From TrEMBL:
PANTHER family, alphabetized: INNER MEMBRANE PROTEIN YGAZ (PTHR34979:SF1)
Keyword hit for Cell cycle: no
Pfam families: AzlC
Transmembrane feature ranges: 12-32, 52-76, 122-142, 148-170, 177-196, 202-223
Topological category with respect to the lipid bilayer: Multi-pass membrane protein
Keywords noted in UniProt: Cell membrane, Membrane, Transmembrane, Transmembrane helix, Transport
Protein name: AzlC family protein
UniProt record similarity statement: Belongs to the AzlC family.
Entry's localization field: Cell membrane
Keyword hit for Heme: no
Length: 236
């Protein structure tokens, strides 16, 4: 598996990341200068985690602990992806290479990598290159536009952020009932933290953490995943 093949397979992801990160750049430009916003994306590759962190930074009461916990729980799924992907990597994918390339594990990159029979370091590096460039470049362009365009235009472009979350969540809700249940719980809790006086004093960071954990726990408790092996035994 060559670098060029990875580059080719990652090109559609890179184009998609450019569009999404443009919205992040627009949002980030309201808080930081464009070089700092771009640096955030260059040192991270996680859309939801970055947006959550940005929201906490925008809240004057947000703390580093809240930001760390929120991004930890939001990005925890990448650890599970890494464990699954480790079963497909080639023998020359040593510890150092895994540590260096681990930042490139995202939902889309993981999906493409898992579709391969075997994943080599050079292929995964190629697969991650354009998504990383697209994410960083899109952020930079969005942040620069956020500084020079009129507020009316940047506010309109910021709507794309909500469109991104709708595009991520709605398709899954259509085919998976428990996801609908989890989303409804999260939305209800979020509204409670916003409008219910006893909870409205909770900072944005901890509100995000609590909503995510409670919704996930209740959905997992009420709709547990069945053991695949057990199902196979029953079928036999």
């Amino acid at each position: 598996m060559s670098y060029l093949k990875g580059l080719k397979d990652g090109s559609p992801i890179g184009l998609g990341y450019f569009a999404v990160s443009f919205s992040f750049g627009i949002a980030g430009s309201k808080i930081f200068s464009w070089p700092l916003v771009t640096l955030i994306s260059m040192t991270n590759l996680t859309s939801t985690g970055q947006f959550a962190g940005l929201q906490i930074m925008a809240d004057a009461a947000g703390t580093f602990i809240e930001m760390a916990l929120a991004t930890f729980f939001i990005n925890l799924r990448y650890s599970l992806m890494a464990i699954s992907l480790s079963q497909k990597v080639s023998s020359d994918f040593g510890t150092v290479k895994r540590l260096l390339l681990a930042t490139g594990i995202t939902d889309e990159i993981f999906a493409v990598a898992m579709s391969q029979k075997r994943v080599t370091p050079i292929y995964f590096f190629g697969l991650s290159t354009l998504p990383y460039i697209g994410w960083s470049l899109g952020t930079m362009v969005g942040a620069i536009c956020g500084e020079i365009l009129p507020a009316m235009v940047t506010n309109a472009l910021g709507v794309a952020l909500y469109g991104m979350f709708v595009a991520i969540v709605v398709p899954q809700m259509k085919v998976h009932g428990p996801t609908v249940f989890a989303v409804v719980i999260a939305v209800a809790l979020s509204c409670a933290f916003k409008f219910f006086p006893p909870l409205s004093g909770v900072s944005v960071g901890f509100a995000i953490i609590i909503c995510a954990l409670v919704a996930s726990f209740i959905a997992a408790w009420l709709f547990p995943m069945q053991n695949v092996n057990a199902d196979d035994e029953v079928a036999k």
